[in-house]
């Protein structure tokens, strides 16, 4: 009867490698190792949760920094564009008046050449 019991144990028990590299028999010390493995998994999950929380906090800080930087860049852009528009208006008025002056001068020279006055 002892032989049959040992044969059944050999057939039903399986060996699994553990994280420490030692191959353990599941039927002999599986219960103790199972509890240890569960505890280790729980601690790993806790560590992952802490890491995720740190990442979330970092992302919030980065988002705030980006929002502040974007706002300041936008305000600077608006100031620069208004300044450029004012300069463009004055440049356009100056160039347009110069073109009119040159056109009238050329018209006067042409009129003088044809003895119109």
Characterization of this structure:
This protein has one domain (11-113). Strands 1-2 form a two-stranded antiparallel sheet. The chain has 117 residues and is mainly alpha-helical. It has helices at 2-12, 26-113; strands at 15-17, 23-25. It is rod-shaped, with a radius of gyration of 44 Å. Residues 9-13 have low confidence and may be disordered. 85% of the residues lie in helices and 5% in strands.
Write the layout of secondary structure elements.
Layout: H1 2-12, E1 15-17, E2 23-25, H2 26-113
Antiparallel strand pairs: 1-2
Structural class of the helix and strand makeup?
A: mainly alpha
**Biggest sheet layout:** 2 strands, antiparallel
Terminal residue distance: 141 Å
Tally of domains: 1
Number of strands: 2
Estimate the mean pLDDT confidence: 82
| Tertiary shape | rod-shaped
Percent of residues in beta strands? Answer: 5-15%
The percentage helix is over 70%
Number of helices: 2
- Biggest sheet: strands side by side, in what order? 1-2
Report the uncertain regions.
9-13
Q: What value does the Rg take, in angstroms?
A: 44 Å
Q: Helix and strand string, N-terminal first? A: HEEH
